[in-house]
Amino acid sequence: MSSLVNKHILLGVTGGIAAYKSAELIRLLQKSGAEVRVIMTPAAQEFITPLTLQALSGHPVHTNLLDPEAEAAMGHIELARWADLILIAPASANFLARLCHGEGSDLLSTVCLASHCQIALAPAMNQAMWAQASTQENIDKLKSRGNKIFGPGQGYQACGDTGAGRMEEVDALVEQVAGLFSSNLLSGKKVVITAGPTREALDPVRYISNHSSGKMGYALAIAAMEAGAETVLISGPVNLAPPEKISVVPTVSALDMLAASLEAVKGADIFIAAAAVADYRPEHSAGQKIKKTDDDISIALTKNPDIVASIAALENRPFTVGFAAETNNLESYARKKLVGKNLDLVIANDVSNQAIGFNSDDNQVTLISSEQAETLPIMNKASLATHLISYIAARVTGV
Ligand code: PMT
Q1: What CATH class does 190-397 carry?
Q2: Could you report the per-residue pLDDT of 160-190, keeping only the tens digit for each?
Q3: Would you call 100 a catalytic residue per the annotation?
Q4: Architecture of domain 8-180
């Protein structure tokens, strides 16, 4: 079975007899590595209880739009941002119609309106309802807006009819969901990405570092791999598991990261510097632990080499992308980095906002190149990484 490791799947369950299959669907999505949160419509709760799906997903099931308790924990906007994919299975004829018309009449339809992520639907209904011109028109409209429709299958129906309208089998559904996360946008290309902080040693037990968690760089590496690229991830010290199918080169200091980058970038098409590299390191790293005395001490710092600028200066340089972590004057400082480091693209993020940037699950960035400045909406780092990799792939391949 394909991998959905670390993917956030928001499962919407609507009213229909196939709602009982969502229990098995949750289990299979989780077996593929996905984290699953569930929203049920009132009609879905007539077929299966929220308690069952809570026990299987390991998280409270969301049922009400106007629930102060739920909003205080993970409200509808957070749920919308959390999701990498909204999967609605089963999707009733009624829900298809409401989604089609942009209604926000319950929690699930409101989350769909508030989200920037892909929506996939597994319709399930009586064969005559599926065949109705109104349902088919709704399906065509939803497809034309980029929503994915899985199924329905043919066969015997719970109501005694036979025909099209059965919900897609759950194992086939999970395969198709996994397929949504892969593309050939970067097949045949090599992508090198730096991630995380660097540590600059003061002595054997102390160092200078920063709050980068590596989440942004790791998400980019996963998105590049899913786009078909041979991916090398040069990682500073982080607490993240090495992603599957990606070659991870662990590093500690800026000097280590520079050496690893120069080696990895041979034959690369794209270099993305998401790491938060220390601009300075202690001039001398003490061989033994520095002892406390009654006096103040000063530490002399020396400048670290600039990794992304060094890559951009290579003769056969890859398409070179830097990040800009700024607390003010975002666009003008980022533009200075674009020119000063001779980059093809700068991805600027406002790290003064604790909800985005360093060590957060979400980020919001402005893409800055010589031609344009485009601000993307706030979204989770995995979804953002997919957007960024598609954008970079289009710039590199011209497709
Ligand atoms: O890791 P997370 O917790 O998910 O947080 C993500 C992030 C905020 C770290 C990431 O989105 C980000 O902004 N990374 C760049 C952080 C940074 O160091 O920005 P900067 O403006 O100081 O550097 C500009 C660019 O030069 C960056 O691409 C940086 O990698 C690169 N650089 C900087 C210094 C240096 N000596 N060598 C470099 O290559």
Answers
A1: alpha beta
A2: 888 889 999 999 999 999 999 988 999 999 9
A3: no
A4: 3-Layer(aba) Sandwich (3.40)
